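Quick one - first record:
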Amino acid sequence: MKELVRPSRLAPGARVAVVAPSGPVPEERLQAGLDVLRGWDLDPVVAPHVLDRHGEFDYLAGTDAHRAADLQAAWCDPSVDAVLCARGGYGVQRMVDLLDWDALRAAGPKVFVGFSDITALHEAFANRLGLVTLHGPMAAGIDFIKDARAQDHLRATLFAPETVRTIASGTTLVPGRARGVTLGGCLCLLAADLGTPHARRSARGGLLCLEDVGEETYRLDRYLTQLLRSGWLDGVRGVLLGSWEQCGPYEKVRALLLDRLGGLGVPVVEGFGFGHCDGALTIPFGVAAELDAGPCTLTLVEPALR
């Protein structure tokens, strides 16, 4: 697995677009997130359909065409330096095939931030654009607007990425040290993305980051087993496990993770502090790094952004 193209870091005054590729966005949370971004001396602009709600399926932020058009327009706007997702939920897989990937590629590399349902876009941006993206908190997320640690780590990654080249968190599940290229996201989305045009064929050569929320343990078992049976995990170099909120008693989840991943023969760190949790860390995807499961550190070979 090769390293991907790193976008440029942000500077004070940078224009950032907020889009909603997935679920509907509460206006009060959006406004709170915009206030945080303005406090960082950024210039946030809200895409036209961010506050929309689908007429029939109220779990979607407007129609598939409108959500895709917002992302397309934001990315292709030369005045925009970064595109931040407002929230997750569900909906990316319905709109991702409507994007014009040639136009997105021609617009050049930009910073892209999101997680959860946005996993499908992380995969697409890696596979179709060859671009480093940031798995991090979202502009209207409650876990962002009320959490100083999540804000501080994202801000450092955006403005001074050399200060967060080493991320230390979690505990050892399987010892060892490995180098590879970071990738991953929400486990259920990675499993659902298998076989689609925008997903990579395997995690070979990668340091795989996994997390999820609200999934019963047997469902996590199903997703992990699907990745194993498909061969997608063949050749993975190491695994970082984030949060598993509302996925049942963690002792049971931990036993499952060890059962399904312990046989890979690679280092595994648990509780690494990214995903659906308080103080979520920002993890860049597509960068070369070293995972050391002894001190539980992820050290980037280069900063996430240029």
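second record:
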Amino acid sequence: MRMSVTGAAGSFGSYVAARLLDRGDERLGLDNVNDYYDVRLKEARLARLSGRTGFELHRLNLADRAGMERLFAERRPQRVIHLAAQAGVRYSIEHPHAYVESNLVGFMNVLEGCRHQGVEHLVYASSSSVYGANTRMPFSVHHNVDHPLSLYAASKKANELMAHTYTHLYRLPTTGLRFFTVYGPWGRPDMAIFLFTKAILENRPIDVFNEGQMRRDFTYIDDIVEGVVRTCDHVATPDPEWSGDRPDPGTSAAPYRLYNIGNNQPVELMHLIRVLEEAIGRPAVKRMLPMQPGDVPATYADVEDLTRAVGFRPATPIEDGVRRFVTWYREFYGV
């Protein structure tokens, strides 16, 4: 199958690309390899894919309308997994225009490409950040999510709305995946586990926000990849029980679906730090700080819809995932 994966140099996209190649799909990769974080890490991820049969990389900005139109017309992918985005809650406060360009304009170009080339299924990355001010847990795709707390979250909520519009108007099957705090080898350097590991190994203090009163549904990368690929193979269908009198935010009368992908086991931040200390073999120096703007105190995924649809639920224990990450970090950076 001709598959297109955007964000091929990213912490999710590079894994998904490898998985698709392993099973024999043709894989069109798209990434602009920007400098939001260390480009050397992105290039190292791409190096693991280069030269493999069926892999083709295009270095292109999602916001390049003409370039995106040309790429879709020439390569005509059957299915698209859209993982490219400007990520980061805190970064969105200081650099809002980057989110409009990548997450809104870029996503529009992806939708238009899918529409005009008759793509069978578009799977795209949303985020647990869309739950924003919600406090009812576990977070469910059937809950209202109209109170985002950051522009990043708002842009992901906008993606879900844009996707539904195209699904309704053009019958383009779309599935949005709300990822919950993904971590693992080859992960993003701006994520807590990466930042903590680097600081502890360099004998620097770690920043512990909200005085450590945080809980996150940490989800290991292998579980994310399994969920993404299974979802792509499970083309979205209309919900026959959907009613405009009682609209369900997670489904539609059109072929539109939303799923959470989370470990369904929130971890206290201080427990995570203890697990890291054990894996690294030294204690962390903690700098206790207040909550940051745009952040939320807890995340917790209800994954029952994902389990029913594709027969899978994330289950990697934090102890196992952290140990694998620390091993990778030491090897990659020669620590």
